[in-house]
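DM from R.C. (forwarded with permission)

"hey, sorry to bug you on a friday — could you get me a structure for this? deadline for the figure draft is monday and I only need the backbone to look sensible"
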Amino acid sequence: MTMSTSGSRSVTVIGAGFGALSVVRELRRRDADVAITLIAPRAELHYLPGIIWIPSGLRTREQLVVPLGNFFRRMRVKYVAGDVVGLRAGGRVVDISTDGVAGEVSNDALVIASGGRFIKKLPGIEHAITPCEGIAAAERIRDRLQQMQGGTIACGFAGNPNEASAVRGGPMFEFLFGIDEQLKREGRRDKFELVFFNPSTEPGNRLGSKAVRHLLDEMARRNIRTHLGHKLKSFEADKVVTEGGTFSADMILFMPGMTGNLWFDQTDLARSSGGLLKADAHCRVEGADQVYVVGDSGSFPGPDWSPKQAHMADLQAAAAAANLLAGLQGRAAQATFKVELVCIIDALTQGTLVWRTPQRNIILPSSRIFHWAKRGYERLYLRRYR
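My reply, with the result:
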């Protein structure tokens, strides 16, 4: 099965998440004629920022899954269902597998936006739920909470020791505070102990020192116990084991650090020490012609607090699209992206705004306004694709 795109210039985009879809929009905004092919296992956007509200019932699977057929028609995108298994010819040919049938998609330029992969090497990690693996994981948390009559809920995250930016800790604070608030609403909080654990003494330090202090103060205010500064050793069905001691846990929520997709191993693309695709300031994969990367798949130059979040992927997508089209026209890449962390740490009824750039770090205290702003942003964002 061989597929090729029509027209004199063709772009292949790998992925159907935030970065990939932003690349599609940016390409089409700049060029009405370039042929775009998108490869992904399914023609759906799963809005993962909203899964923090699944345990409480504020969101359901149906509200967070957006079929992309209409968006692809509007953007004139050729969708190819399949899993990418490798690259050939310097990235000009993408090897795919669709229901076990091998195929290939050719291109004149390539954008890789297939996300990252969680590092699951910790012994006993099968006993933990990794929330950001998707909607099904959040549904497991919801179902377990409904079944539990009491006990200890442990919530934590860790990073990639070889890639400082390859960590996603923000959602874990949201699950922690959201569960605390949910149990209070249900009149059951006194039957549970919540424990937050992290190998660092300053969890969430990529958000900035002000945010770390705020988060730890918020845990103390909510009577959430902390177990900080101890390297994780393993999980068991009912406990978390660290170098600083062991504590019981009836449910464990844990976000490991991230690394590159397994199929990256079947390519000659440059890799960072943490296993991600090594990119320059223009989002080009180093040493590859007309191969770009955006979002969680890439290791980018910049400060070690550079975020792995949808907003950052959107900024990188704009730069990648501009540079890719310039390359197709024989011009040099000039577009770069700013490094900016913007997030609302939600707690079910209120939220805290954190904004960080190389020049400033601002945190605005918890407010119901920010909770509703996060919900409003979700509605506006998904409207683009419905």
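R.C.: lifesaver. Residues 310-328 form the longest helix (19 residues).
me: no worries. The chain has two domains: 2-116+260-328, 120-253.
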